[in-house]
Specification:
The chain is mostly helical and about 160 residues long. Helices cover about 55% and strands about 10% of the residues. The strands form 2 sheets. A two-stranded parallel sheet has the order 1-2. A two-stranded antiparallel ribbon has the order 3-4. A hairpin with a 4-residue loop joins strand 3 and strand 4. The two termini are about 30 Å apart.
């Protein structure tokens, strides 16, 4: 558990360094951040509404580029699947003519799994600390398993 705490503190310090550098460069203090992170940054308002993950941004960018180049035929069915295998996360985005049916199914599977093994430890911040720790442990346990599988796939 001590190693886990150190890792969180390292990540928090890294994020804080990036934010401080940006604030220094722009000569202002940020109040709101659009950021996806399990790190608690209480001095900022973390905006999650209307935010998109990186793979969805890639998908939208590709669609916009195809429209600009004229390589996409409007009115014809188009499908896309984006797998973003990053350094610590893997994001999936799917689009079929602007409707993300696959993503809705994925969200339902996630909700079903969450009932079996809860991982949203942010939801437990105001509950018993032991419950928070258990859910956080679930998250990092599954994180490590998925990271190992991703590494095997990418070898």
């Amino acid at each position: 558990m001590e190693t886990q705490l150190q890792l969180i503190e390292i990540r928090k310090a890294f994020l804080k360094h990036i934010i401080d550098t940006a604030e220094s460069q722009f000569k202002c203090k940020f109040k709101n951040l659009h950021i996806f992170t399990p790190i608690n940054l209480p001095e900022y308002n973390i905006v999650t509404k209307r935010s998109i993950d990186e793979s969805t941004a890639v998908l939208y960018s590709t669609i916009a580029e195809s429209i600009e180049k004229g390589t996409i035929t409007m009115g014809q069915e188009h499908t896309a699947l984006v797998l973003d295998c990053g350094g610590g996360t893997t994001d999936i985005s799917s689009c079929k003519n602007g409707i993300s049916n696959f993503y809705h199914k994925l969200d339902k599977c996630y909700e079903d799994a969450e009932r079996i093994i809860p991982t949203r430890y942010k939801d437990y911040e105001n509950k018993l600390f032991v419950d928070y720790q258990e859910v956080q442990s679930n998250f990092y346990f599954l994180w490590e398993i998925s990271r190992e599988h991703k590494n095997k796939i990418l070898q």
